[in-house]
Write a structure and sequence with these properties.
mainly alpha; about 0% strand; about 120 residues
Length: about 120
């Protein structure tokens, strides 16, 4: 249950990326970097789905590898996007970072409430 909530938030950020992709020309540097960021987020979703099916000896050490790639794309997009678009995207990535700090396989009601509050603050 907890992993599905994290994936739901990642899908909301992917929706923001899709909206931004329509704003920028197809062959611009910003559109190219948005495509790469979208692929990195899909890799995180795939990893979380696979983590849900692992045996008790799982490891969550690979999250940092995926987040490093996402941080690189965000740094590059900082110079490519308009300021308002970049701030909107950066808020979405910040909530993903915050959500992934929690243990990704244990469900807790407290975590659900915190994720709901972050989603309310960042997405509304």
């Amino acid at each position: 249950m907890s992993i599905q909530n994290k994936i739901r938030i990642i899908y909301r950020v992917e929706k923001i990326i899709t909206e931004l992709q329509t704003k920028y020309p197809l062959h611009s540097d910003a559109a190219n970097e948005l495509n790469k960021l979208n692929e990195s987020l899909k890799n995180v979703v795939d990893y979380l789905n696979k983590l849900d099916h692992l045996q008790p000896n799982y490891t969550t050490n690979e999250i940092d590898k995926y987040m490093a790639a996402i941080n690189l794309h965000i740094d590059i997009l900082g110079a490519e996007l308009k300021n308002a678009d970049f701030i909107r995207l950066q808020k979405g990535i910040n909530i993903i970072k915050t959500v992934l700090k929690f243990h990704p396989t244990q469900y807790s009601f407290f975590e659900f409430i915190i994720m709901w509050i972050y989603g309310f603050i960042y997405f509304i």
